[in-house]
Amino acid sequence: MTTSAENGRTGGRPAMQTPPLVSPQEWEAARERLLVKEKAETRARDALAAERRRMPWMAVETAYTFEGPAGKASLLDLFDGRRQLIVYRAFFEPGVFGWPDHACRGCSMVADQVAHLAHLNARDTTLVFVSRAPQADIARLKAQMGWEGIPWFTLTDSFDADFGVGEWHGTNVFYRDRDRVFRTYFINNRGDEQMGGTWNYLDITPLGRQEVWEDSPEGYPQTPTYKWWNWHDNYVEEAAPDKKWVEVSDAGEAAFRNQDANTRP
Q1: Please, are residues 225 and 212 in contact by the beta-carbon 8 Å criterion?
Q2: Which of 113, 110, 150 is nearest to 129 (CA)?
Q3: What is the dihedral of CA 26, 29, 31, 32, to 10 degrees?
Q4: How many CA atoms lie within 13 A of 237 on its CB side?
Q5: Omega into 100 within 30° of 0, i.e. cis?
Q6: Contact 228, 122 (CB under 8 A)
Q7: For residues 125 and 85, is the Cβ–Cβ distance under 8 A?
Q8: What is the maximal distance between C-alpha atoms in the chain?
Q9: In the beta sheet, which residues pair with residue 211?
Q10: DSSP 128
Q11: I need a surface site. Which of 17, 111, 227, 242 has the fewest CB within 10 A?
Q12: Are 173 and 183 in contact, with CB atoms under 8 Å apart?
C-alpha cells in the first residue's frame, strides 16, 4: 500500500493508505483475476434468481383499498392490466422525518434510482409506490422531486402491516392470474439498495427477465435475448423485433460469448 499525498492528513483526518502503483500489464492482470470472481458472482446471482422463480406463492384473499389520482383503487387495479406488480412501501406521511416537505431520505433515494418504467411495462410488469400521505401531498412531492413517472398510491388499510412494511420500507411482488392475486416475493433492508434498475426489478419477479437463456419453469414466457429491448418511447405492444436491432444484438451477443469463453477459467 502507498500513502496518497493528496489524501494525507487534512482537517484531522488520517492519511489514506492507497493500493500500490503498477504497470498497465500488471493492472490488467489484476483486473482479470478479479473478473473471474465477478463472473462467478454473476452466475450465482442468476442461479438465485432461477430459484426465486420457483418460490411458492401465497394467495391474497383480503380486498385491500388504495387512493389514487383517479380515486379508490383495489390491489388488482394497481396491476394496470399487467400480470406482475412490484409495490415499494415509501415513507411519506405525518411523523416521518422531512414531512411535509420531503419523504424519508432513504425512500427518496430509492425513488431517485427508478429507471424509465416503459421497460418494465414491456415485460408485463407494473411498479408502484405506496405511502400514507394524501394524494394531494403525493402529487406535490412528485412534481417537486421529478418523480412524475412513478405511480404512487395512498394506503388506507392494513396492507402495509399485512405485508411486512408497516414500520420499515420494503418491496413486495405480486402476480395476477385473471382476478386472483398472489404474493410471490419480498425484500427489505439492504435488499432495497439494489432496486431501481430494470434488470434487478425483473430478477425479483416470478417471470424474471423472460429471456431464453434463463432457467425458468416449463411454460414460462421467454423471448430471444435482447430482442425486446427498445427506446422507452418506441414500445409497441405485440410488435415484432426490429430487424436491424436483431442483427446488431446477435452480433453483440456472439462477441460477448466468445470473449467470455476465452476468459473463463
Answers
A1: yes
A2: 150
A3: 180
A4: 4
A5: yes
A6: yes
A7: yes
A8: 65
A9: 223
A10: E
A11: 17
A12: yes
Q: What is the rounded CA–CA span in Å between residue 225 and residue 248?
A: 12
Q: How many residues does the chain have?
A: 265
Going by C-alpha positions, the residue among 95, 62, 46, 57 that lies closest to residue 185 is 57
**Inter-residue long-range contacts of 191-196, CB under 8 Å, 24+ positions, other chains counted:** 192/88, 192/110, 195/88, 195/110, 195/113, 195/171, 196/110, 196/112, 196/113, 196/114, 196/115
All domains in the chain, ordered by first residue: 58-203 (3.40.30.10), 224-254 (no CATH)
* Amino acid found at 189: N
Distance CA 78, CA 71 (A): 12
> What DSSP line would sit under 182-209, residue for residue?
EEEEEEEGGGGGGBTBHHHHHHTSSSTT
Give the number of other Cβ atoms within 10 Å of residue 49's Cβ: 20
pLDDT tens for the chain, 265 residues: list them: 655 555 555 567 889 999 999 999 999 999 999 999 999 999 999 999 999 999 999 999 999 999 999 999 999 999 999 999 999 999 999 999 999 999 999 999 999 999 999 999 999 999 999 999 999 999 999 999 999 999 999 999 999 999 999 999 999 999 999 999 999 999 999 999 999 999 999 999 999 999 999 999 999 999 999 999 999 999 998 899 999 999 999 898 888 777 766 655 5
181 within 8 A of 188, measured Cβ to Cβ: no
| Helices (H), ranges, 146-242 | 159-162, 198-203
Number of CB atoms found within 10 A of residue 21's CB: 8
